[in-house]
């Protein structure tokens, strides 16, 4: 087949329909990869798919700075309809920052999908309606309130006769306080279900009313032709506490390719989460209802009730909670070097996972729980990803629990970083040096009754280095790159040491909890003012409990 040519980013490409094109400027080596609805993959290592006719376009040199492009194209009226999973893979990053890219999908030369990004991004879903292989909505898509076989709604006003109903994908459904709504177009049969682990109860087409949870059946379930489908599970404000897991199952496929669906959860008509797919859902969406005691949670999964949330019991847990509109993130770096965060929510070595939970009362609780926590130093970061009012930010509480017993608690109102030792402290090769002060060897000073001020930190304090991780201060070396609060990574260029004498004066340290900081009484330390905003220095000896 001969394809028309076109120029994109100074490179000649084949047109095709659809055409998926990735463009960027820089010196990174990026790879475009596409998985078709039939499950076949097209990219530079597999540049032709006989089932769909899709081809990977000419590969151009990418190891020099400039304009770059990669493209995948299909013959007209041959590409199947359904969900296409498109990925941008990063083969090599050569600069300090990842190059920015643009991904576009074209049908008959017209742009129908666009995504901008940076670095590696996996499984962007493009839903294509075309040909006879899958369902295709009518081109006119005119909404008719009354039909020979069904009654449709066009907007919420068509549902006003029924209390608290809204129009979703041409069907009237109940809004509810919480709801999970499945929508798709086609003739396949899907099943929406929810499960409450605490009560071991399902809500689905066979169990349509459970406590304060209700299942609403698809009005068009028995229609064989392609049409709009909607299933809904909603909950009232009086729903019993616990966590409800929601998922999608494929019951029957009518066409060659399964219809693509969308599952969305809402709270008070505010969108919480969205998942798309075809076939069975690979993940779960969960709705968290508040608990009062451990009895409200699932004993088989070893859940416990913490701050009205059912969460997993564990040997080690870092729990962050707050109320309000701010978006606050927690991340934990393990002693083995793994990092658990919103971008990477699971660590294999430690079986540590980040869980993000929101209740219907706008309370948020995120926690990192470990199934195999190693002894050592954990670095915990709490940061404001978004704040509605940067001056009056939402306050938060961070707790550390060992075997479900709280051992430490912090409650600042700003981004913070903590270093915490789990398990026995590492046995040092040498005993930490207790800093001593020798008075100057003059008769006047020797006879003086006052002592000189000492500004020292104990050798057992820890700092975070760029190359060696968390180390004791006594083990620092000249040239070490250390993490500082205001200046990022800085270099150690000198040490101030005490002088030893035949009659040294022993120095006492104050220990500041819960951080474990050891500091001399004369050393300055910053404290937060009464307005929780300004920091000012005082002598450590002036610190008071609280």
Helix content: under 10%
**Percent of residues in β-strands:** over 45%
Cα distance spanning the termini: 77 Å
**What form results from the Cα inertia axes?**
flat
Structural class: mainly beta
The main sheet orders its strands as: 17-18-19-14-21-22
Uncertain ranges: 131-142, 425-451, 500-505
Discrete helix count = 1
Rounded Rg: 31 Å
Summarize the biggest pleated sheet.
Answer: 6 strands, antiparallel
Number of strands: 45
The average pLDDT is 76
Descriptive tags:
546 residues; mainly beta; 6-stranded antiparallel beta sheet; 1 helix; 45 strands
Describe this structure in words.
- With 546 residues, this protein is an all-beta fold.
- The protein is built from one helix and 45 strands.
- Strands 17-18-19-14-21-22 form a six-stranded antiparallel beta sheet, with no helix packed on it. The chain has a six-stranded antiparallel beta sheet with strand order 29-30-31-26-33-34, with no helix packed on it.
- Strand 21 and strand 22 (270-278) form a beta hairpin.
- The longest helix is centred in the last third of the chain and has 5 residues, at 443-447.
- The chain is flat, with a radius of gyration of 31 Å.
- The protein starts with a strand and ends in a 7-residue tail after the last strand.
- The relative contact order is 0.07.
- The model is unreliable at 131-142, 425-451 and 500-505 (pLDDT under 50).
